[in-house]
Amino acid sequence: MDVAGTALRVDLSGALVWDEQRLLVVSDLHLEKGSSYASRGTLLPPFDTVATLRRLEAVIAHYDPRTVIALGDSFHDRDAHTRLTGDDRACIANLQVGRDWIWITGNHDPAPRGVGGELADEITLGAVTFRHEPTGAPGEIAGHLHPKARVATRARTLERRCFVSDGACAVMPAFGAYAGGLSVRDAAFAKLFPKRAFTAHVLGDTRLHSIAAARCY
Length: 217
Description:
18% of the residues lie in helices and 30% in strands.
């Protein structure tokens, strides 16, 4: 997938890799979403943080990036980082060893503290700017919207997380185990891509499927 003339690799985990920069980007981890819901009386299995960190650990081990950018809403609420277990904190600390780690602030987690790494509202590298909430600006890579696409095949209808891009800017899927999704047909995407002239890069079981927006519903 190219954004603003920059060649980027899409991983089926939902991570984005910039090989030239040895950079790995993930968005919307929503760690401790289960405990957040439990505190309000909605009981979910309390395994989302462990599951998300294990997937993150695997993709980092595979690519061995020099820098990791977590593109906002890494934690489900402003106090979620305080509910991490000791093992989860140790896992995050181990993932940060020997590399730069940047937490982009999101609307759910404006200022996570005590979890290592650096905080930034956004960061620009070359022609690409990484921020949480998308504006549609050229060269932008953002998260926040959790895009998903529904596609009909001969055998069945599939609904999967996806990257959305028109080549000028892109929106990343949520990486978190409990993060939901927003259909690429939603009006929020129409505001970013007025002519719907974008491609949904759908995360399949074994490969990426690049599908024109008109074929998604």
